[in-house]
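Let's sit down with a protein and look at its sequence and fold side by side. Once you have written the record down, we can walk along the chain together.
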Amino acid sequence: MAMRGILRGLGGKSASGDGAAASPLQAIGMGDAHRRLQLLDDFESAGISWFWATDDQNRLIYLSPSAAESFGVGHEELIGRALASLFILEQDNSEESAERPLPFLLSARTKFANLTVRIAAEGDPRWWAISGKPYQDPGGAFLGYRGGAKDITADYERNRDTSRAAQFDSLTGLSNRNRMTKRLTATLTAYKAAKRSCALMMLDLDRFKQVNDTLGHPAGDELLKQVAQRLERMVGSRGEIGRLGGDEFQVILPDVDDRGELGELAQRIIQMISQPYSLDGSRAIIGTSVGMAIAPYDGVEPSDLVKSADLALYAAKGGGRGQYRFYSNELKDSAQKRREIEEDLRDALARGELRMHYQPIVNAVDNKVVSFEALMRWDHPERGAISPAVFIPIAEDTNLINGLGEWAMKQACSDASEWPGELRVAVNVSAHQFNSESLPTIVTNALASSGLKPNQLELEITESVFMGDAAAVDKMFTRLKKIGVKLSLDDFGTGYSSLGYLRKAPFDKIKIDQGFIRGCTDEDNTNSAIIAAIVSLAEALNMDTTAEGVEAMDELELVRKRGARTIQGFIYSRAVPQEQVMEKLGNGDFVYEPSGPAKQRSQRRTVFRRIGVIHEDHHYDVVMRNLSATGAMIEGLLDVPVGTDLVIDFGEGQLAVGRVRRSQDASQGIEFETPLISDGADGLCTRHRISPYVLAAAGMPLKALPSGQYTMERRKNDSPSRPKFMQVDVQMGAARAA
């Protein structure tokens, strides 16, 4: 109707339906002020667009009456107000936004067109596009603005939703892959110029597929939402979180290069993600693996940094899941090595390369052995001994675990049947095996073929089995207990623990994880109280307890005082082959006397690795014999005085300042000024590294840190000084001047 009114004002008349002739044209002349004003009124009332004007102070002196209705106040109340006060200033965080805010444009007396603004009115938000042009008198004096406006709310919200869908994950509300790629690119570009660092985390959920398979995809979607919420609580404002798709997540952490801080955050994320989830009345447990890389140390360009973080994630998953890893140049070779191990593992059983070893579990009071834990060992013909921490996760990923588990069950029962007395054997059962319908049959067959009594077989099960269908889990427990075997809850307290499991599941024993044993005798350490609490809980539920991983006499004394009934660890014996077990038991010796250090010290790893040592302006090549978080033993320098300050070069930009505390001939014991940190695996690394920005300032190209050691650059005017120490070739035994 409004448009027809405008047409009538123009003097036009469409042909009537009865064929009547059109009336004569009545054009609006430029001098016809009345009809021109009528045209303006009709245009304003149509709501197609509005007009506004300000004075030289940018105060509103005119606004189309129909436009004033959008503010919910009378037209008169708006006149005289500052134009900018009619609109809400909002910060647009999108990379595409380049518009100047309205107050800036008005103060600069700049012409503007189709500027998007939100009106300051109650109720649902309304959006306008406004245009304005400065108005001047003939002498050039500024008189104010003249402009127009129109409501674009529908278009704005539609475009906003489209833009959000292109940048954010519809399920979790997190940034999607597209947005994360743009954010990482923008961040690294800006940070390269400012010489700043940025860390990147890649996360992959462990056992998520099993949730989808057992509880359905709606439960899987709900789980992903809860994971996103937990990540947001953990990361907070320190970084941006994105879901790349499926069960993959990414976290950008600006200005972080401290690997100690990153490791602590990654460990907290792993623990938080690993806590149980409630999904529409069902209970699920998953885990996560985390890979981390830091720019510019591990990559300068976005694609390089993502590749590095991906390799670290791959290593974390290959190391047993539920772990984190930092990127290192060695991971490229490790990925290839893992693929080769996977291929060899397929034939290892047929070639007779796998064997079972047995570690004693002894009575805490009289040190008599009560059972042995069966542990699988792989002696590779070319690689030598391969740790179960390496090949067991590979077996689980490649569906080889059921075959290995069945063989281990038969072999352990067969070996245990030869032991004198009625000693028990404990066999680990993975979540994959537990969820297999054939497990009770495998157990029954192993017992029957060996002649071992059911109560002499103990199945060690981790809490990860409870993440599946609750009814199926209960049914499996019932079938196993009907056979008559013992059930042990392994690694209790490592992240999945729930008292509900203990109340329902028919466990005979709780094994206290060695993580609570480490440091339990340290002052202000709460592990001692946790051990006591677990023992009390087990006693209340009429269950036995085994303290795992006891290595030092002070740890042994503490777990005895806290009431653990049985003890397992190096302080009694490592896992040994069947021949050694039979030799000891065959002599009637059932007692394992404890033997170990008086106090647990920082764990030293035996290594044989070439590293560098820097003293003053000289770089020496030495061999590192062992390493702990607080120090190292090196060989290769003769007669270095105690108290000498050295810099240990581990390679890849890792330098550790240390002081010689012990020195004899060509061997020195070094104490680090700053302790090393865990790399998430069995290794150690420095918190910080030489920055590629520093190397670039010295004339080197800006790139990720290479493998190998730090190259010392001598300034042009510096004359070389005489080396203070004689370097010895440890392998050849010949001394030579450095």
